[in-house]
Structures are given as C-alpha cells and as structure tokens.
Amino acid sequence: MAVRKQLELTRMERVQNITRTAIRRASNIEVNPQTKRNLQELFVNFSLILICLLLIYIIVLLFHYYRPPASSGASMSHPVSAAPSADGCTTQDYMHTDRYHDCP
Q: What is the pTM of this model?
C-alpha cells in the first residue's frame, strides 16, 4: 500500500514538473508585434460578434415574449359556431374568456 502511494506521488510530481516546464517554455516564446496585434484584433472582433449575437437573441426573446396574442379577425366577425354548446357557451364566448373561468 505504501509503495503504491509512493508511485502515485512520483507520477504526480512528474506531471507537475512537465506542466511547469511547459509553462516556462510558453512564457519565453517571443511573438512578432504584428502577429500579436493581429491576434488582439481578432479576439476583439470575435468578442464583438458574440456580443451582437447575444443582443440579437435577447431582442428576439423580448419580441416573442411581448408579442400580442394572435387574433383571428374572421372568426370574431363570423364565429365558427354561434349556437351555444351543451354548457351554454358559444365559440365567441370561449375566445374572450380565460381558460380557468367559466364563460359569461
């Protein structure tokens, strides 16, 4: 059991050493100033595009949420069934009432 823990520790130390070495090498890389500027501009453009897409998505959601309910003018002036049903309500009555309340 102790040998296994020691092996795990040496593996962890090796991984940590490799990670430290890779970070040290990456931090020492020199980049051409023009390339650095291009990458910065690319990142800014990408961020702006993401922000615009997010705003468009929010606007579409707001329009969808605040859109008035679709009213069918033809059925209002010419109801499908003007005769009362078994409960005494017409089609036009159902269209003007909340689904949780009885028709007038």
A: 0.42
